[in-house]
């Protein structure tokens, strides 16, 4: 059986599968059962994968009875499954012609086995048990007289065979009787000739005796001849009756044959209707899925409109900001300088991130230094007060120690230079340092609350820097996620939207013209799941992007406020007269410049993410419409293939192998829809 299956379908039952069957099993029935189990599993897989037929309603053979006891009925079921594989394979025309060339009795048995297998496949629920009729009858039960017509056809064929046998026997008897009649006629002629010879010559007495004997023989022969003629007439009448009965049976057989042909045609119509009903169920499922996808597409279009409106608002806001920037002509050279710096430092983003971390650390150090400076300021104020007292005491002491010229003058009339010349060197240095600090404190007091605003500005700058760092980290994560989505979109585009793949898919669809293979169905489901997942990811990314844009807008407003305050403070602080604040101011300016660069980089990356999102949406819509066009072509091809009705099973099986649609002419007329057509489809 394995060799036979390998001969029937070598592309499925390959040599590697055949090598798995153990040939030398001997009397070991367990090895036989294992081999039979492998063969049966391969047959069931062939029906499901290659023929797309489910044989779960067919009673599978008991392999244990076959291997252990050699049950003929179970073996017949096994051979029936192999016969179904033969009449449904690619070389089925050859096997059907071999069946048609067999004897009528063998052909009848084979056809009954095939019809039983197909009836159990097509109408699995006609009869459950004896007298139990299911409510969900299969398509074979649409015509209520098919079963009775088949029974009458079988009885008519049996009676026809019996009458033909009886007529043959009667013809043999008539031929035997005719031979006996001719033999008797020849003997009668011989006897008459002998009688004439005896009458002419010989003795009269002996001739009379012989005449009497011959006459008696003639009378007996005439009686026998009469009896034979009567029996011949009876047989003739019987033969006439049998001829009439034969003619009646022939007419009845023709009527039954006509009814059987009608039943076959009805069965073919029922099979076609069954296939159409199954396809209608499949098409309804696909229509439901398409409706759901169209609803999802409408939701996506609605979201796209909302995003476009938001984008237009953002564009308008950006235009307003650009107008404000144009109005502020004082910042134009600085803005050009910043743009040049951004263009130069675009490739050093990683280094800038490290610099920001270092600046955060330095900012913390500056804060600690600021606190130390404030403490030093308090200490110096205390020392200043103490030194003022010491200076007054020293002035008094110097007035007592000076010459008579200076002694005659009061201490208040002495100049600062004279006092410095009199005071020792250490006290002089300390006094000069205190005067410098005093002038600085006066200047800071004259400037107002700018010194008090420095800690506030530094805290604001530190908060802004921490926020900027968190946004940069989130932006890096989003960039990584965008790269993953780009790779997935490229894979989906390579699998669906390439013209080579579309051409191959259309060839496979038109070549099959009846049903989809299991591999294509799995691929379609995988593509649908990928499309749904990508749509969900795009929605989530759009939401996160909207949140990030809102946060960026709020951050930009805060940054502008802080920048205005910082600029006002920097203008109030003059570094020429205050050299101690020059490094602090330069550090603040560098941090502000770096923050501006980071913000511009983030804006540029957000624009890139928007462009990538638009490209992904275009790819998804293109893949969806290509998939819809392919499914539409498949439905049209299947409907056209089901139009050829009114043919029997064998004729359809003969024509299925020779029916090949030329793909070149069809493919030349086909072309993938252009981008303008896709845009029209989107608008509709």
TrEMBL record:
Protein name: Protein hook
Domain Calponin-homology (CH) intervals: 1-86
First-listed, main subcellular location of the protein, grouped into a coarse class: cytoplasm
GO process terms (BP): cytoplasmic microtubule organization; cytoskeleton-dependent intracellular transport; endocytosis
Pfam families for this protein: HOOK, HOOK_N
Family: Belongs to the hook family.
Bias (Polar residues) ranges: 643-658, 665-678
Coiled coil (residue ranges): 153-397, 461-495, 524-612
Spans annotated as Disordered: 643-684
Organism whose genome encodes this protein: Cherax quadricarinatus
GO MF annotations in UniProt: dynein light intermediate chain binding; microtubule binding
Oligomeric form and interacting partners: Homodimer. Interacts with microtubules via its N-terminus.
InterPro entries, alphabetized: CH_dom (IPR001715), CH_dom_sf (IPR036872), Hook_C (IPR008636), HOOK_N (IPR043936)
Subcellular location: Cytoplasm, Cytoskeleton; Endosome
GO cellular component terms attached to this protein's record: centrosome; endosome; microtubule
Keyword list, A-Z: Coiled coil, Cytoplasm, Cytoskeleton, Endocytosis, Endosome, Microtubule
Highest taxon, organism lineage: Eukaryota
């Amino acid at each position: 059986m394995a060799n036979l299956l390998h001969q029937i379908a070598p592309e499925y039952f390959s040599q590697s599968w055949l090598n798995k069957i153990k040939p030398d099993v001997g009397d070991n029935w367990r090895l036989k059962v294992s081999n039979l189990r492998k063969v049966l599993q391969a047959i069931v897989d062939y029906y499901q994968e290659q023929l797309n037929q489910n044989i779960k309603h067919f009673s599978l053979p008991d392999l244990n009875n076959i291997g252990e006891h050699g049950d003929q009925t179970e073996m017949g079921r096994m051979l029936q499954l192999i016969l179904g594989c033969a009449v449904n394979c690619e070389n089925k025309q050859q096997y059907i012609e071999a069946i048609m060339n067999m004897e009528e009795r063998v052909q009848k048995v084979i056809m009954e086995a095939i019809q039983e297998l197909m009836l159990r496949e097509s109408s699995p629920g006609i009869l459950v048990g004896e007298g139990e009729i299911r409510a969900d009858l299969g398509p074979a039960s649409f015509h209520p007289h098919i079963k009775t017509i088949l029974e009458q056809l079988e009885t008519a064929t049996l009676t026809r065979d019996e009458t033909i046998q009886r007529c043959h026997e009667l013809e043999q008897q008539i031929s035997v009787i005719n031979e006996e009649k001719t033999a008797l006629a020849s003997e009668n002629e011989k006897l008459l000739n002998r009688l004439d010879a005896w009458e002419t010559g010989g003795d009269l007495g002996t001739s009379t005796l012989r005449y009497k004997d011959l006459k008696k023989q003639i009378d007996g022969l005439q009686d026998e001849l009469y009896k034979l003629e009567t029996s011949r007439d009876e047989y003739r009448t019987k033969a006439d009756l049998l001829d009439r009965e034969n003619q009646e049976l022939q007419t009845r057989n023709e009527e039954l044959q006509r009814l059987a042909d009608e039943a076959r045609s009805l069965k073919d119509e029922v099979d076609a209707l069954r296939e159409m009903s199954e396809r209608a169920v499949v098409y309804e499922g696909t229509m439901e899925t398409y409706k759901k996808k169209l609803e999802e597409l409408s939701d996506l279009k609605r979201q796209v409109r909302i995003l476009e409106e938001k984008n237009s608002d953002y564009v308008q806001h950006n235009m307003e900001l650009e107008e404000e920037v144009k109005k502020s002509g004082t910042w134009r050279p600085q803005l050009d300088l910043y743009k040049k710096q951004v263009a130069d430092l675009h490739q050093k983003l990683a280094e800038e991130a490290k610099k920001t971390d270092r600046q955060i650390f330095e900012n913390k150090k500056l804060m600690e230094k600021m606190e130390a400076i404030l403490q030093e300021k308090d200490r110096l104020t205390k020392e200043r007060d103490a030194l003022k007292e010491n200076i007054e005491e020293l002035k008094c002491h110097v007035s007592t120690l000076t010459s008579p010229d200076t002694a005659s003058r009061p201490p208040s009339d002495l100049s600062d230079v004279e006092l410095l010349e009199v005071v020792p060197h250490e006290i002089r240095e300390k006094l000069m340092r205190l005067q410098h600090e005093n002038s600085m404190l006066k200047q800071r007091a004259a400037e107002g609350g700018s010194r008090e605003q420095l800690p506030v500005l530094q805290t604001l700058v530190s908060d802004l820097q921490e926020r900027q760092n968190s946004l940069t980290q989130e932006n890096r994560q989003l960039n990584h996620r965008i790269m993953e989505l780009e790779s997935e979109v490229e894979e989906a585009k390579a699998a669906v939207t390439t013209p080579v793949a579309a051409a191959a898919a259309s060839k496979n669809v038109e070549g099959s013209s009846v049903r989809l293979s299991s591999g294509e169905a799995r691929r379609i489901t995988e593509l649908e799941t990928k499309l749904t997942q990508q749509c969900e990811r795009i929605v989530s990314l759009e939401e996160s992007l909207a949140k990030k844009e809102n946060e960026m807008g709020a951050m930009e407003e805060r940054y502008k406020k802080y920048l205005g305050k910082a600029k006002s403070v920097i203008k109030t602080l003059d570094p020429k007269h205050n050299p101690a604040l020059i490094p602090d101011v330069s550090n603040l300016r560098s941090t502000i410049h770096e923050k501006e660069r980071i913000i511009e980089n983030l804006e540029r990356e957000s624009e890139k993410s928007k462009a990538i999102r638009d490209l992904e949406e275009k790819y998804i819509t293109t893949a969806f419409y290509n998939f819809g066009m392919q499914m539409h072509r498949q439905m049209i091809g299947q409907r056209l293939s089901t139009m050829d009705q009114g043919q029997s099973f064998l004729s359809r099986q003969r024509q299925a192998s020779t029916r090949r649609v030329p793909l070149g002419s069809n493919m030349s007329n086909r072309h993938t829809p252009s981008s303008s057509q896709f845009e029209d489809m989107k608008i509709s």
